[in-house]
Design goal:
By secondary structure, the protein is an all-beta fold. The chain folds into three domains: 335 residues, Neuraminidase (6 Propeller); 185 residues, Sandwich (Immunoglobulin-like), CATH 2.60.40.1190; 67 residues, Immunoglobulin-like. It is 3% helix and 47% strand. It contains one helix and 44 strands. The strands form eight sheets. Strands 26, 27, 28, 29, 30, 31, 32, 33, 34, 35, 36, 37 and 38 form a 13-stranded mixed sheet that branches. Strands 39, 40, 41, 42, 43 and 44 form a six-stranded antiparallel sheet that branches. The longest helix is centred in the first third of the chain and has 19 residues. The chain is globular, with a radius of gyration of 27 Å.
Length: 639
């Protein structure tokens, strides 16, 4: 009997370990401003964007030659395109890439692709041009590599990388060595004089009987390893999927290349988290955190229409997850030949050719949500002075999987947690068995577990104004329970609706706001003719609190805020100045009351923070990108 009792206790202990001994999901997740695309080029394909050292953006694309354009407002508007490469002799120049070297030199590489009828004097190849004056003037064409003169034996898709030594590497897909088969390898040429001359091509990766293609290289944040994203049709999935090949920087591809069986070749997505989206055209970049971001194109669950998918990888460019779709498309649209750009302020640009027009949207990689200390008016209306975490109540942006954007935000006070949701929807459904709505999950203790806990709650908010409360049950599921005062306000408008939810802390068995970070999950419900479509925070699972997003309650101590009409909000908290504007800020200057300059910062963005050496009354001068100047006096709390 004693043995049975011991065994039972051991089983219970093991079960407890399974429930609690789980690592939290700490990776960044992607959130896109999908309904606000900007036109980069009115026509073209295969665009790339980089942020220049002077703060401008530069874009290039293929379009009856190679075109470039510049933006001084982070991509909202672009200069009239300039064609720097003309098509001559029936040779289209295609698929450009652009890089700015550490000394400021710009290089645009591209791919001459002869049209039929083919002739031996017109070769498929890789060429480049240089600019040393910020893109105003360009060199004559520089030869890099040639393949054969027929389509089946060409070379393709150049992409460049500068190493810390100043060596420039140009990677490309290469069929040249395989004139008697359909195989393809990744090749690379080097330049030791900043792109003026190039070495002969050498092999980087090759899988016998298959086609490694479309390389995009990065150097990991620790400068230890070169990683190249490729499309690989030999991973066992019956089609191309994004993959990576890699090499230590100290080896630098000297007498080394990655074959089919190398441990340095990996399928990129983590298919335990991500759907198997077959398709190529990968692109790879580093986030400001050191994590990595990958994109490619796929027709997953969409017939023959392909769109762009993006993923977040770790600092080793492995374990890519948080699979999202940056663009909202119509039924007849595709998002093709995509690329990514990560700005210095952390903003991610997703770029694609959408039915012949180059467009970009912005996104963020987020590891947590934040709630301001504020008491909003819960009435289903959007007010600037409700003081949710962001000016426009759009900290969390979702909905690209549903075809329309949903913006959400959080606030809290001593009485309640507040949740704001604004959903664009032209087919609102508030009656019947299937209705539009949103479900908010809250783990008040921040518990990291494989099932809902006693401290877990979820609130199902329907467009008809109903709100249902559920709490973590004894058997690991959800028990329906009566709410003690949760209040839902719904307002319906033409083309969108707003839901505002106030959850009293006592409704979640708390006396007030917890001192710990909580964890939250959000599920969107969209009623369609086929039933209910849903979208969840990337990688979050309803039953697994370890996958939910941390929610930090921003401590209110030492805060004083001034609201400048509907244009800006300026907050002095302890020794940090936080600024939020409806448009981008070009420069911020902070002066003491006696006129002393305390700080000045030139930075484009509509949200920024500035550390100050002291906390004292000050005058803040904002110079906006549009030319508008805003000056306001702000006082620390208690002054």
């Amino acid at each position: 009997m004693e043995n049975k009792r011991t065994l039972a206790l051991a089983v219970m202990s093991l079960c407890a370990c399974v429930i609690f001994a789980v690592a939290p999901y700490n990776s960044s997740r992607l959130f896109w401003d999908s309904t606000n695309p900007y036109v980069v080029f009115s026509s073209g394909v295969y665009s790339r964007i980089i942020e220049l050292q002077d703060g401008r953006l530069m874009a290039c694309c293929e379009g009856a030659g190679i075109k470039i354009s510049f933006s001084s407002d982070k991509g909202k508007t672009w200069t009239t395109p300039t064609k720097i490469v003309q098509n001559v002799n029936n040779i289209p120049n295609c698929v450009p890439d652009v890089i700015q070297l550490s000394d400021g030199t710009l290089i645009v590489a591209y791919n001459p692709r002869p049209s039929v009828p083919y002739s031996p004097d017109r070769l498929f190849g890789i060429r480049c041009k240089r600019s040393t004056d910020g893109g105003k003037n360009w060199s004559e064409e520089i030869w890099v590599n040639d393949a054969s003169y027929t389509f089946s034996d060409g070379c393709w898709e150049p992409s460049m990388l500068e190493l810390p030594s100043g060596e420039v590497q140009l990677y490309f897909s290469d069929e040249g060595p395989y004139t008697s088969s359909n195989e393809q390898q990744i090749s690379m040429c080097r330049s030791l004089d900043r792109g003026k001359t190039w070495t002969s091509a050498q092999i980087v990766s090759y899988r016998k009987g298959h086609r490694d293609g479309m390389p995009v290289p990065i150097l990991l944040q620790d400068n230890s390893t070169i990683v190249v994203a490729i499309e690989d049709n030999g991973c066992g999935y019956g089609d191309f999927v994004p993959a990576t090949v890699r090499c230590l920087l100290e080896t630098n591809w000297n007498n080394y290349w990655v074959d089919a069986n190398s441990g340095n070749r990996l399928a990129a997505p983590d298919y335990d988290f991500c759907a198997l989206a077959k398709g190529g055209a990968p692109y790879l970049r580093k986030l400001t955190s050191g994590e990595t971001v990958l994109s490619h194109q796929s027709a997953l669950n969409n017939g023959d229409k392909r769109t762009m998918y993006a993923y977040v990888g770790d600092k080793d460019a492995k374990n890519f997850k948080s699979m999202t779709r940056p663009f909202i498309l119509q039924a007849d649209q595709q998002a093709l030949w995509n690329s990514l750009c990560v700005l210095k302020d952390g903003t991610i640009l997703a770029v694609a050719s959408i039915n012949g027009t180059i467009k970009m949207v912005t996104g963020l990689a987020m590891t947590q949500f934040t709630a301001n200390y504020s008491t909003p008016v819960v009435d289903g209306k959007q007010r600037f002075n409700d003081h949710y975490f962001t000016t426009n109540h759009n900290q969390v942006k979702m909905g690209s999987g549903l075809g329309h954007e949903v913006a959400m935000d959080f606030a809290y006070d001593s009485d309640s947690l507040y949740f704001f949701c604004r959903a664009a929807d032209n087919t609102q459904q508030a009656e019947g068995s299937n209705v539009d709505g949103v479900r908010l999950y809250v783990e008040t203790a921040g518990a990291v577990a494989v099932r809902p806990m006693k401290t877990s709650y979820n609130y199902y908010c329907e467009l008809n104004g109903n709100v249902s409360r559920f709490s973590g049950g004894d058997r690991g599921g959800w028990d329906s329970s009566i709410s003690n005062g949760a209040h839902l306000a719904v307002k319906r408008y033409i083309g969108y609706y707003i839901m505002e939810l106030a959850i009293p802390w006592e409704d979640m068995q708390l006396a007030g706001p917890p001192s710990n970070d909580m964890r939250v999950n959000i599920v969107l419900y969209d009623a369609t003719a086929e039933g209910i479509a849903t979208e969840t925070i990337p990688d979050a699972k309803a039953q697994k609190t370890w996958t939910w997003m941390p929610l930090q309650l921003k401590v209110p101590t030492g805060i004083r805020t001034t609201t400048v009409g509907d244009e800006a909000r300026i907050t002095l908290r302890n020794s940090c100045l936080d600024i939020e504007c409806r448009e981008s800020v070009d420069e911020v200057a902070v002066y003491a009351i006696d006129g002393r300059l305390m700080a000045r910062r030139k930075l484009t963005g509509n949200r920024l923070s500035m550390p100050l050496n002291t906390v004292e009354p000050c005058v803040v001068n904002l110079q906006l990108i549009s030319g508008i100047r805003i000056t306001r006096k702000i006082m620390p709390e208690g002054k």
